[in-house]
Amino acid sequence: MRRRSLLLAALAAPQVRAQAFPNRPIRYIVPVAAGGGSDLVARTTTEAWSRALGQGFVVENIGGGGGAIACQTTAKAPADGYTLLQGYVATHGTSPATRSKLPYDAIRDFTPVGMIGATPNVLVVNAAVPVATIAEFVAYLKKTPGAATYGSAGQGSLTHLTMELFKSQIGAFAVHLPYRGIAPAFSDLLGGQTQAMFPGLAAALPHIRSGRVRALAVTGTQRHPLLKDTPTMIEAGFAGFDAMQWYGVVAPAGLPAPVLKTLNDTLATTLAAPQLADKLAAEAVQPQAMTPEAFAAYIREDIARWTRLAKERKIELDN
After folding, report:
1. N or C: which end of the chain has fewer CB within 10 A?
2. What is the pLDDT of residues 218-262, one digit of tens each?
3. Residue 241 carries which DSSP code?
4. Cis ω before 22 (30° cut-off from 0)
5. DSSP letter at 266?
6. Cis peptide bond N-terminal to 31, omega within 30
7. Could you tell me the end-to-end alpha-carbon distance of the chain, in angstroms, rounded to an integer?
8. Measured between alpha carbons, how far is residue 209 from residues 17, 189, 218 in Å?
9. What pLDDT, on a 0 to 100 scale, did the predictor assign at position 7?
């Protein structure tokens, strides 16, 4: 009887090992074209994560629809841990707030796995604008109502909504000029066609360092190590102004708890490595590990924040 039990256990062992997660490469969908900051974050993170997980990742860029196609693709995949999406502030923050006809539900259709990290937005002005502080910029806007213009990476983008949040808090007006991406928006800011913008820190840093734009404040709860002398918006008196450009990992809804734990635990281990922090610094991203529960709450709160603002400012992209 003992010999028979041992034989059955030996026969069952390969099957148990075959079912262990993960036993094959993981598809990692990035909702933007290859080559940008989000893509760099994805490839840097998955390269390190594969070592902690003991399995490789196949990074797949699926652009289009402001991330909607990638989100649909992920939501329809089996909830087995072998398809993940790098969700970020656009797919799981600003788009759900400004588009009522999204073909996916940012909360219901996904299982939050964990945060990767975040980078602040930074309020910058053209160097010719005669202000050096937030207070001076507010006074400048109020002195010339409607005369100042600001650019953004597009209608409903984080660069747009962050400036609208600022305007709503100061009660001043500036004309919004949306562009098709951050590069053309910066071209006009540097050329003086617009006076201000609220871009991500990584995009702004070269121009700040060249002296062609002036940084007035960053979003977030603490100063960024790359701009230690620049105050946060909160320090400047704007309570709750902690909006960030964030990146995280989500899976299809219904991901089994053991698989979710494996993914979150190994992601947290990956994010704790100093080498990864050094590489993510290229996009001014600071690693920020979260439990699935904390990340889920973060997503809900971010959507709620931008939804309130969109309703207040009457920003609806499906109209």
Report:
1. N
2. 999 999 999 999 999 999 999 889 999 999 999 999 999 999 999
3. -
4. yes
5. H
6. no
7. 73
8. 53, 15, 15
9. 43
Query: In terms of DSSP H, where are the helices of the chain?
Result: 2-19, 37-53, 68-75, 95-98, 134-143, 158-170, 182-191, 201-210, 257-271, 274-280, 292-313
pTM as predicted: 0.91
Residue with tokens 């990476």: 153
- Which residues lie below 8 Å from residue 3, measured CB to CB, with a gap of 6+? none
Q: Look-up: residue for tokens 């209608």?
A: 155
CA distance 309 to 301: 12
Give me the pLDDT at residue 14, please.
Answer: 42
Q: Is the pLDDT of residue 78 over 60?
A: yes
Task: Decide the pairing of beta strands 175-178 and 149-152.
Answer: parallel
What is the residue type of 243?
A: A
Element (H, E) at 286: strand 286-287
Maximum pairwise Cα distance, the chain: 92
Taking phi over 0 as left and psi of -120 to 50 as alpha, with beta for the rest, 25 belongs to: beta
Annotate 167-234 with DSSP letters as a single string: HHHHT---EEEE-SSHHHHHHHHHHTSS-EE--BHHHHHHHHHHTSEEEEEE-SSS--GGGTTSPBTT
| Domains contained in the chain, CATH given | 2-119+245-313 (3.40.190.150), 122-227 (3.40.190.10)
Return the residue matching tokens 């808090």: 169
What residue has token string 């597009």? 154
Model pLDDT for residues 31-73, shown as the tens digit of each residue: 999 998 999 999 999 999 999 999 999 999 999 999 999 999 9
In a 3-state reduction of DSSP, which class is residue 87? strand
pLDDT tens by residue, 139-175: 999 998 889 999 999 999 999 999 999 999 999 999 9
Examine the pLDDT at 10 and tell me if it is beyond 90.
no
Q: Which of 46, 32, 40 is nearest to 87 (CA)?
A: 32
Distance CA 194, CA 192 (A): 5
